[in-house]
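User: I'm writing a short methods note and want a consistent example. For DUF4440 domain-containing protein, I'll paste the sequence; you return only the structure tokens, no commentary, since I'll be parsing the reply automatically.
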Amino acid sequence: MRMSVPAIAAALLLSTAAGPAPAEAAGVADDVQATIDAMTGAFARGDVRGILATYEPGAVVVGEPGAPVAGTAALTAMFQQFVALEPQFTFMDHEVIEAGDIALHLSTWKMEGRTPDGSPVEQSGLSVAVLRRQPDGRWLMVIDDPYGDHILGR
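Assistant:
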């Protein structure tokens, strides 16, 4: 079936009209970003409980490229090691893509910190996080891979 250019344009307009209203999309992005901000703020305070509160029970976090970590005890231990660096984050940009109760958060980031002996540590990457809207309306992370761009270096 061949469609004329005006018919294709009309179909595109109708398909985009079915998406979320800009205010709704902005609201979701803001709510998702609030979860990310709560997590990074907890890192800056050294608050491991606060970090864990931004994740669903059963969440998976990539602690280093190719090494996913799950379970409260393992995540607590990993986050305790990380907060010992006293990390300070800088985010270059964010993007949120929502599909119902699931959202994908993408962000480039840079982290500066110090090892216990005072040596500087710098890391950067592309964070890829999957969040789910909770029954109370909060968004919590289900999968968090701060090294989402590591496969580009292979």
